[in-house]
């Protein structure tokens, strides 16, 4: 656990990262606002992103990585708040399946994320105060619109590939549906074309935990100088359970006791799993903004790609020339294989070019972030095949 | 289907695959059902420059196909072909799989619906060796090409070449080309009437059109 001083300095860093991120940053003025699904307009606004590798002369080798709910733009470089290595540094990097020696990789903080892209913790330039709950509610499509504006700014016409897991996978599907001509290959991992009732339910528990914390102050906590750390920690604890599987919890913790030989007949963290979850909750609050958590979970809840296309998912992919690689994990109960299969079925109905791989693992939803060799070998094969089809030199060698 | 290693030629290409590849037009949009490890799809991509997709029943087969850069999904010929729209592909290939489906006629109808042309390769149950085993030994035929015992065979709907042609007639499918093969997948290259091939060919490849 972090000491108070360490925690305090991490907090200072995370507050600074909201407005002036360590990564690259592009600001769009009121003349280039973002029109949102809610009908609201956001501007001026900013988007924080990282890039790796070099864009080739033909600008054909750009890969956009979309991050998940609590992810960030530091896909393959050190997170400035936690000091931890990139969250997908085994997937993206020199010699990795998405090889930065060959591809130009872009990863942007999502809209309403709290690492530099405009969100509720950022200052509204017209009021001089943090947006808080005056920030308009955003959708996955809004996040993708923001990314598309960044890709325009970078002068890239067509992305060689868009890839991501979980909420990142939702963005991948939205990209393929909204901008089919701009996406050569799409890799949605551990995702689905809609957020299920069960998933909305878990998010609602998390949001209620945050809003029940008196320090949340109606969302106005930054101005009031408080932080709803208890509520946000509980939200994270509940969500974290959904990222694992019964089997992996059993193997990792079982009913093992935490630093004690006997039950204490109290409500201290007797069990290792309790201690683990508390730790997850406590470390999370230092790096993530509570209001951001409300907004980003809401965006996931609102996601229903078929609804945008008259209720028929296949219509989202009509005439698509994009090559898809859909991937799921056997023990993922948050985005089970059936959700990926529904996407594959719709892609088949559109006679799209699709690969579908279900990877056997007991690691649950989080498997996409972990060292799962079959995931890496599959992605490496798919990327190489797509590079061949795109006519760009692919790295040699295999896993 | 497991085939004996004898059916691969010197360059590692299966005999029936070579025949199938020769029937596929250059650059065609192809769906290969029963992709196994992706060998046929890879051959078609390399030699015929096709836009190829595959469907394979075993997830292990699918994963190895995708790792080879091929577009393959996990699926079942009996249930999943209904997902595809009419005329989705120039050529649909069902290689050594029809006899293992639950509803061969339904599968054939789907193939003819989604493909402009359909290539089907099947083992010939009326091959003379099979006839001899049944007639003289009184046992279900077990050969090098069809190595299963009756109780463990995945092949639940065997037919003869003549049976298959009759089914094609029933489905109004035109047989544009038929190639008779030995068990080793060698192309038997001389002209003969149907009754002869129904005895002499151990397997055959058909090119059909609706």
Automatic annotation (TrEMBL), chain A:
KW Mitochondrion (keyword) present: no
Function field: Transfers an acetyl group from acetyl-CoA to L-homoserine, forming acetyl-L-homoserine.
Gene3D superfamilies in UniProt: 1.10.1740.110, alpha/beta hydrolase
Catalyzed reactions per annotation: L-homoserine + acetyl-CoA = O-acetyl-L-homoserine + CoA
Domain AB hydrolase-1: 61-370
Keywords, comma-separated and alphabetical: Acyltransferase, Amino-acid biosynthesis, Cytoplasm, Methionine biosynthesis, Transferase
Subcellular location: Cytoplasm
Entry GO CC: cytoplasm
Residues annotated as catalytic: 166, 332, 365
Pfam families referenced in this protein's UniProt entry, alphabetically: Abhydrolase_1
Species of provenance: Roseibium hamelinense
Quaternary structure annotation from Swiss-Prot or TrEMBL: Homodimer.
Superkingdom of the source species: Bacteria
Name of the protein this chain belongs to: Homoserine O-acetyltransferase
Keyword Metal-binding appears in the UniProt entry: no
Family designation: Belongs to the AB hydrolase superfamily. MetX family.
Predominant subcellular localization, coarse grouping: cytoplasm
Pathway assigned to this chain's UniProt record: Amino-acid biosynthesis; L-methionine biosynthesis via de novo pathway; O-acetyl-L-homoserine from L-homoserine: step 1/1
GO molecular function terms noted in the UniProt entry: homoserine O-acetyltransferase activity
Top EC class of this enzyme: transferase
Binding site for substrate: 236, 366
Automatic annotation (TrEMBL), chain B:
Gene3D superfamilies in alphabetical order: Vaccinia Virus protein VP39 (3.40.50.150)
Pfam families: MetW
InterPro entries associated with the record: Methionine_synth_MetW, SAM-dependent_MTases_sf
Source organism superkingdom: Bacteria
Name of the protein in its database record: Methionine biosynthesis protein MetW
């Amino acid at each position: 656990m972090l000491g108070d001083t360490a925690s305090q300095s991490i907090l200072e860093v995370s507050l600074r990262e909201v407005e002036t991120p360590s990564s690259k940053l592009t600001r769009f003025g009121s003349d280039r606002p973002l029109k949102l699904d809610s009908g609201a307009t956001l501007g001026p606004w900013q988007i924080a992103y990282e890039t790796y590798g070099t864009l080739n002369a033909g600008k054909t080798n750009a890969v956009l990585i979309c991050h998940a709910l609590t992810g960030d733009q530091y896909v393959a470089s050190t997170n400035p708040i936690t000091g931890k290595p990139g969250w997908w540094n085994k997937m993206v990097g020199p010699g990795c399946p998405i090889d930065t020696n060959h591809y130009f990789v872009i990863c942007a903080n999502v809209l309403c994320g709290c690492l530099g892209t405009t969100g509720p913790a950022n200052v509204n330039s017209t009021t001089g105060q943090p947006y808080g709950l005056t920030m308009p509610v955003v959708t996955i499509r809004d996040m993708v619109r923001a990314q598309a504006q960044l890709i325009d700014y970078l002068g890239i016409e067509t992305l060689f590939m868009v890839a991501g897991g979980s909420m990142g996978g939702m963005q991948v599907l939205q990209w393929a549906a909204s901008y089919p001509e701009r996406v050569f290959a799409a890799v949605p991992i551990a995702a689905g074309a809609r957020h299920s009732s069960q998933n909305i339910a878990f998010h609602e528990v998390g949001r209620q935990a945050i809003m029940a914390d008196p320090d949340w102050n109606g969302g106005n906590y930054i101005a009031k100088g408080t932080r709803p750390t208890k509520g946000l920690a509980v939200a994270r604890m509940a969500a974290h359970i959904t990222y694992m599987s019964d089997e992996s919890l059993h193997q990792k913790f079982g009913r093992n006791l935490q630093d004690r030989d006997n039950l204490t007949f109290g409500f201290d963290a007797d069990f290792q799993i309790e201690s683990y979850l508390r730790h997850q909750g406590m470390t999370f609050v230092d790096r993530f903004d509570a209001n951001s958590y409300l907004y980003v979970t809401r965006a996931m809840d609102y996601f229903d790609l078929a609804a945008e296309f008259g209720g028929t998912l296949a219509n989202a992919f009509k005439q698509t020339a994009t090559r898809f690689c859909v991937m799921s994990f056997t023990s993922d109960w948050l985005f089970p294989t059936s959700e990926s299969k529904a996407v594959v079925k719709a892609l088949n109905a559109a006679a799209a070019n699709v690969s579908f791989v279900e990877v056997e693992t007991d690691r649950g939803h989080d498997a996409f972030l972990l060292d799962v060799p079959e995931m890496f070998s599959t992605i490496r094969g798919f990327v190489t095949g797509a590079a061949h089809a795109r006519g760009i030199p692919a790295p040699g060698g295999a896993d | 289907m497991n085939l004996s290693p004898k059916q691969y030629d010197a360059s590692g290409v299966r005999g029936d695959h070579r025949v199938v590849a020769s029937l596929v037009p250059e650059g065609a949009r192809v769906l290969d059902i029963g992709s196994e490890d992706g060998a046929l799809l890879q051959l078609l991509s390399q030699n015929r420059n096709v836009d190829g997709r595959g469907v394979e029943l075993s997830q292990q087969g699918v994963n190895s196909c995708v790792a080879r850069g091929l577009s393959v999904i996990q699926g079942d010929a009996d249930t999943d072909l209904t997902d595809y729209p009419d005329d989705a592909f120039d050529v649909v290939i069902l290689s050594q799989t029809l006899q293992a489906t639950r509803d061969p006629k339904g599968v054939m109808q789907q193939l003819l619906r989604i493909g402009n042309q359909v290539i089907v390769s099947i083992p010939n149950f009326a091959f003379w060796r099979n006839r001899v085993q049944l007639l003289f030994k009184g046992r279900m035929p077990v050969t090098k090409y069809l190595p299963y015992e009756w109780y463990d065979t995945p092949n639940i709907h065997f037919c003869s070449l003549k049976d298959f042609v009759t089914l094609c007639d029933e489905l109004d499918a035109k047989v544009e080309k038929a190639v008779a093969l030995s068990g080793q997948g060698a192309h038997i290259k001389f002209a003969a009437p149907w009754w002869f091939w129904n005895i002499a060919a151990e397997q055959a490849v058909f090119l059909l059109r609706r």
